[in-house]
From TrEMBL, chains A, B:
Residues 419-500 form the PEP-utilising enzyme mobile domain. GO terms for molecular function: ATP binding; kinase activity; metal ion binding; pyruvate, phosphate dikinase activity. Pfam families: PEP-utilizers, PEP-utilizers_C, PPDK_N. Residues 518-873 form the PEP-utilising enzyme C-terminal domain. This is Pyruvate, phosphate dikinase. It comes from Thermosediminibacter oceani (strain ATCC BAA-1034 / DSM 16646 / JW/IW-1228P). InterPro entries: ATP_grasp_subdomain_1 (IPR013815), PEP-util_enz_mobile_dom (IPR008279), PEP_util_AS (IPR018274), PEP_util_C (IPR000121), PEP_util_CS (IPR023151), Phosphohistidine_dom_sf (IPR036637), PPDK_AMP/ATP-bd (IPR002192), Pyruvate_phosphate_dikinase (IPR010121).
Length: 881, 881
């Protein structure tokens, strides 16, 4: 017969899936000799059967439960329901993965009108016994019988009022008896049944209630958010009661073995004298700092610190424990790995290595890369009380506050005057760049994670909240509305680009610092990882940040962002408006100087390291004003009769329309531009090599890697490789110096993956552009998908993840693997990396390690995360192989 | 030593690659005993070496040439350059694939100041000899020495004028001597060298000129258009002269063994008495019908008809021959398979089967599917002289003429009055449908092969020329301009949607008929093909046409085209403008009736055959007016102060903007719509099954196949399969009758191909949507690519074909093959077809056969082409295996 019920002493920590976390750890503590009240666990498999069999507990499981109960009675020498020597138990849920929202605890189960008297006699404490009973009815009534908590509280308040008391502690045994009678009436009225007096019935009902709570609304939501499978089920722990409410030598509390906020090695927690567990939660009495126990109960405190040390040594991790002291004797009711802040996680992992508790490998594996993201950006003080008025997409991480401004020109003026401003726009265009530059952050009501605002803000490392459609902007009135709330120009808001939150007013913020421990941990990570980590950076400033964070090169330098500068944009527009090649070349000549300076800056900042420079990628119309705005302007100008401006605008509109595309993502961009307008790429390549040569002359070692974007067939690459080689040779000859360089391609089109063997013949390196590759593999336009249907898809489990955030291994990953195999088949030493945003996402980094990439490249602020994730991938892979 | 020169008698027809077509066929004719003047061929490999070795003929090749010459001298008993008995030769080019534009012929080579006298003596005809010499200098001067043809003609004109003659025939021997002197002076002046007197030098120069002509501009262009590899090279044929200009018992001519226009079995051609070959071409004298020879030269004519019969029997194909008669003796100078019209090709193939010349298989293989396209549409009479004023994209085949109209309302009105109109628009939108319906054809200046106009016109089977950017439309003035030409409303134009031509005025047209021979040939094709052939049809009319053309089912019925009807569009817009599900359902209820009728019509038309009905695919904004136009209207309404209309338009604009997408191709469309708005798909599925049940009740067998578009992961399909199954079951229960049906999916996203094993679990059939699959595999938006960079790519050989026309086997094909393998791996009996436009393109059909698809589906008018292509694929495959 299958075993559905385990005595605590039969279990071990390793049996978490079967016994749940709480049950497995109680078993483990008994195993290592810690004082744990005896009990047993009904397994998660029993829960699964409960649901399979139409929400009924099967007979065999009930039998095993009562067998276990009998054994518990023997061990404690008490008996459930025996008025002379009643056994009381607690019933607690315990899933394999800790999960708030489920039924927590029923204490004192086993009490009824008779056993309560027995308890009074055996403890000699009538008030205590009746207090226990009323607590039991209250908890049972609430969690098993679904009677609102307030209804019970109202009854106590009524009695206190009648008796003129302020505090619960003033109530005596008779008062509690009065309360109990009223409680029982409440139960009768609510359930049309008497409060169950049979303790076995109580037990079965409680177990069922735990099973049911697995599928209550809060638990389902929690599982969805945390991606916990619905099939796991919960276990139920039935444990002999110990009482913290038996006088001033009793108490109850929770403790962390280290400070969960800072990671300091010190016992941290709180306790209450003469109380049962839920009193701490209820917040009726203010708990005391655990350190006060040292004076109040010196023996117990010493014992507790010993237990903490033992548990840490045993579990090799910081523990979060619950304990009860009954008449001077310490009992442990729970231990689990304690939740902690990112900073604490880092410090604890590093400290534990130094204490010899864990290895460096374990320390590296223990810190979640996603968790430490928060340490790398300015953030809203988690202690602060904030009023979130709206939520948009978390488009560029970090937090900022400022006076809101709707006009980019005004943002620039005020910003230059030193005022902090947040630029609020429906969406941004290249014409707004000067405003974004001077703003603390950007908030838009339209556009997704790759909208102009998002891309530009991420590029500048500025916080940005995008597509916040809850706010409706009135540009004329210079205000926005959220429901009834009107926020006007000049009002202060705070935004958090890591969470998408928009907050009214200024909130306290915390600046990022890499703690010495974090640096040490990353150093260890570097020892283990196989993947190299580069950064995506478009400016010397970004490059420097990336280098400080440990980047070993630039994996993607987007030259188009250099086109967006306020001094360059008019020249870029001049180039685009050019109607002949000669006119275009004139404008390009002006851009050459700008680009040379750009490249010189970034190459110098990355001296001794490789810098992958991608030639112009976006469609040209991205550099021109928006067609719709122009049409409106033109209609207005016609009415106003301003012939000259009208004509100019009409010219621009004509060009905008000529360049306009139905699906710009799939249109004239990337290498297609370079092929149709070779003079643009020629200018860029010339600028790269002028910069490289000039640095080389100053003795600075540079490694430019010229990258051709959006290649879908080998002839494109062949042609452009020739172009690059020709210009490079020409410039190096003119400058009379040689520099090392290589030429490669982005792999971001399915066909490029499939024909990677052909491409490899003309490429020294591949770099996966997984943003675009995801778009084409899925047929999803990211902006449209994230705005229109991806949230629904994820909500309804059609997709488990946003494939633009977590790399889709099944589809996109398959194509990547194909490309790596085909490419290396032709060219063994082909360098292969990734520069899509996935390059900084831990699970995607793991996949990149698995398929043998050489490097990942991500935003500068994600470099430490990628270093950690790469190390974890290598360590996990080593383990598994 | 490698052999670079072959005597005619050493060759065979099979050596075409080495000897060129002309040389190989001369050899073959000698082999079968026909009278061919002797000669030799310098091979194509000699040409290749000529280019490899810096445009120089190698010594060993020259040696072999002179050896061959010696042999020729022995055979003829004459000697090149011998004044007593001069050998004269012709030098002609001959590439492996017949190619106009290359150097054609030099006759009479070997003449110089001395041999001309020898020729005069040996023939006893001074005038003849000097005429030959001047002809030689003229041809040599023109094609070898690059002297303009007119310069020579001017000299003859001068002499005639001086002598008061009108015709060349009036000139005597002395006059020709005069001409020759002037010719030689012209050569000296032009080349600063005397005309070469050494016949061997003449020969080498002529051979070099043939080699050079391989790379002249016209030849290069021709090869590019006809996709002939540049590496083939041309051979040179040197042949002893025979003379058609030796009196009234001599002559020269060309003949086809059957009528190349109609295919009738009759000798067809023309000839000239007393003339050399180039006189026919020069057009100085009007040639006579070949049949006149029967009376003029009865013996020679009988001989000629015998030769024609023999050649057809030998080559098993209609031949195009050149011949010369010298003093009553017939010589053949060339034979080749004759070019013919599509109608003739079909008739000749079928007739030859009946004559026992070829098998049915050969007949089927002999007719090019692309060639017969012209037989399936109305077309411009190829005999007509037309003035092409512009060329656009051939967006929907067929030809039409009409008065031009710029306004769809006017097109509707005039059309209803019975006037023929051509609708001319910048681009069309759904609002223009009523105008398109009543027009003969559509011409747009913007948009590609999948633009609204193109798709709608193809759907209606109406001619359409798209993206004709040479015309600039002025809607206000109601005119368009092409360069200086202004074409006004009411003017007549003709358009040819098969070629993209726009022609001023009305031109004669030919209506399509399937000839009995064509029907017979298609019947044979059906015996051989493995692939089933279906049609893409959206209306009962289209379905009937398709069935008449032999379609075995509907492979794609696009339900959205039914939404575009003028009576439906307002209801569709009402549905889209709905702000609540309830409002949307109200509009959908109205659409249900329309759709039920649509489906009933198409299912009835295809009784007994399967009909694949695709659920709604395009983004909803395609059914709304254009945002830019609305913005302009609104700006104008604001100025005009029409508050009410303004408000309504603003509402629509709001919705248009809300639905607007950055990349609609990759946005909220296909099954994504069906998932977010299940009520739309529910209505469509209900309509399908109401229609099917109603027909079933009338005893009509129907096989609806419900198709889910744009699936990229299995959960989408799983969910929608359930939806379809539920509604189907519900309707069949209500209607109390069962119908057979199946559920499948379009495979049009790379990820669908990669995860086809997962999809196959929820699909009874796959249908490749290769239009979209090509877009996503290449990262090409078809509209943008064809408008912006594909033409450049093809011109510059970056791509050899437009992948939207010819299926890209390397990329898209790889994904298709992967999908077929994965899908059938899971479900052996999975039906797999293709419904992209490639389904009617012969090379793509061949690929579909090779990867084992069950059917191809194409536009109704392409069904015969697909039947033929499918048969050819099966026959070729059988041959190769």
């Amino acid at each position: 017969m299958k075993k559905y019920v385990f005595q605590f002493k039969e279990g071990r920590a390793s049996m978490k899936n079967l016994l749940g976390g709480k049950g497995a750890n109680l078993a483990e503590m008994i195993h290592i000799g810690l004082p744990v009240p005896p009990g047993f666990t009904v397994t998660t498999e029993a829960c699964t059967r409960y649901y399979k069999e139409g929400q009924k507990i099967a007979e065999d499981i009930l039998e095993q439960t009562f067998d276990a109960l009998r054994e518990l009675e023997q061990e404690t020498g008490k008996k459930l329901g025996n008025p002379d020597n009643p056994l009381l138990v607690s019933v607690r849920s315990g899933a394999p993965i800790s999960m708030p929202g489920m039924m927590d605890t029923i204490l004192n189960l086993g009490l009824n009108d008779e056993t309560v008297e027995g308890l009074a006699r055996s403890t000699g404490n009538r008030r205590f016994a009746h207090d226990c009973y009323r607590r039991f009815i209250q908890m049972f009534g609430n969690v098993v019988l679904n009677i609102e908590h307030e209804r019970f509280e109202d009854i106590i308040s009524g009695v206190k009022k009648r008796r003129g008391f302020a505090l619960d502690t003033e109530l005596g045994a008779e008062d509690w008896q009065d309360v109990i009678e009223q409680y029982k009436n409440l139960v009768l009225k609510h359930t049309r049944r008497e409060f169950p007096q049979d303790p076995r019935e109580q037990l079965v009902m409680a177990i069922e209630a735990v099973f049911r709570s697995w599928n209550n609304h809060r638990a389902i939501i929690y599982r969805k958010i945390n991606k916990i499978p619905d099939e796991l089920g919960t276990a139920v722990n039935v444990q002999a009661m110990v009482f913290g409410n038996m006088g001033e030598d009793s108490g109850t509390g929770v403790a962390f073995t280290r400070n969960p906020a800072t990671g300091e090695k010190e016992i941290y927690g709180e306790f209450l004298l003469n109380a049962q567990g839920e009193d701490v939660v209820a917040g009726i009495r203010t708990p005391r700092n655990i350190k006060d126990m040292a004076a109040l109960m010196p023996d117990v405190y010493r014992q507790l610190t010993d237990v903490c040390a033992l548990l840490e040594k045993h579990y090799k991790d910081m523990q979060d424990i619950e304990f009860t002291v009954e008449k001077g004797k310490l009992y442990l009711l729970q231990t689990r790995n304690g939740k902690r802040t990112a900073a604490a996680a880092v410090k604890i992992a590093v400290d534990m290595v130094k204490e010899g508790l864990i290895s460096k490998e374990e320390a590296v594996l223990r810190v979640s890369p996603e968790h430490v993201v928060s340490l790398l950006h300015r953030r809203i003080d988690p202690e602060a009380k904030v009023e979130v008025i709206a939520k948009g997409l978390p488009a560029s991480p970090g937090a900022a506050w400022g006076h809101i401004v709707f006009d980019p020109d005004e943002a620039e003026t005020l910003g230059q005057q030193g005022q902090k401003v947040i630029l609020v726009r429906t969406e941004t265009t290249p014409d707004d760049i000067h405003g974004i530059v001077m703003a603390q952050g950007v908030l838009t009501s339209r556009g997704g994670m790759t909208s102009h605002a998002a891309v530009v803000a991420r590029g500048m490392g500025k916080p940005c909240v995008c597509g916040c459609d809850a706010i409706s902007i009135d540009l004329e009135k210079e205000e926005f509305r959220v429901g009834d709330l009107v926020v006007k120009k000049g009002d202060i808001i705070s935004i958090d680009g890591s969470t998408g939150q928009v907050i009214l007013g200024q909130v306290p913020m915390i600046d990022p610092v890499l703690s010495p421990e974090f640096k040490e941990l990353l150093g260890w990570a570097d020892e283990f990882r196989v993947l190299s980590v580069r950064a995506n950076a478009d400016t010397p400033e970004d490059a420097r940040v990336a280098r400080d964070f440990g980047a070993e090169g630039i994996g993607l330098c987007r030259t188009e962002h250099m086109f967006m500068g306020q001094d360059r944009l008019p020249v870029v527009q001049e180039m685009i408006m050019a109607e002949t090649k000669a006119e275009r070349e004139k404008a390009l000549a002006k851009l050459l100087d700008f680009q040379r300076q750009d490249f010189e800056g970034i190459l110098e900042a990355m001296r001794d390291l490789p810098v992958t420079i991608r030639l112009l990628d976006p469609p040209l119309h991205e550099f021109l004003p928006n067609a719709e705005e122009l049409i409106q302007e033109i209609a207005e100008l016609k009415a106003a009769g301003d012939e000259e401006t009208l004509k100019r605008k009409q010219e621009i509109l004509k060009r905008v329309k000529a360049l306009g595309e139905f699906n710009p993502m799939l249109g004239l961009r990337g290498c297609r531009l370079g092929i149709l307008y070779p003079e643009i790429y020629e200018m860029q390549v010339r600028a790269i090599f002028l910069a490289a040569c000039s640095l080389a002359k100053r003795g600075i070692k540079v490694y430019p890697e010229v990258e051709i974007p959006l290649v879908s067939n080998d002839n494109e690459l062949k042609l452009l490789r020739e172009l690059v080689e020709n210009i490079a040779a020409q410039v190096m000859k003119e400058e009379e110096i040689k520099v090392d360089y290589s030429i490669g391609t982005m792999i971001e089109i399915p066909r490029a993956c499939i024909t990677a063997d052909e491409l490899a013949r003309y490429a020294d390196f591949f770099s996966f552009g997984t943003n675009d590759l995801t778009q084409t593999t899925y047929g999803f336009s990211r902006d449209d998908a994230e705005a229109k249907f991806l949230p629904y898809y994820i909500d309804h489990k059609i997709l488990t993840e946003d494939p633009f955030i977590v790399l889709d291994r099944r589809g996109v990953g398959y194509l990547m693997k194909t490309a790596v195999g085909l490419g290396r088949g032709v060219k063994e030493n082909l360098t292969v990396g990734i520069c899509g945003e996935h390059g900084g996402e831990p699970s995607s980094v793991e996949f990149c390690h698995e398929i043998g990439l050489d490097y990942v490249s991500c935003s500068p602020y994600r470099v430490p995360i990628a270093r950690l994730a790469a190390a974890q991938a290598a360590l996990k892979n080593k383990k598994n192989s």
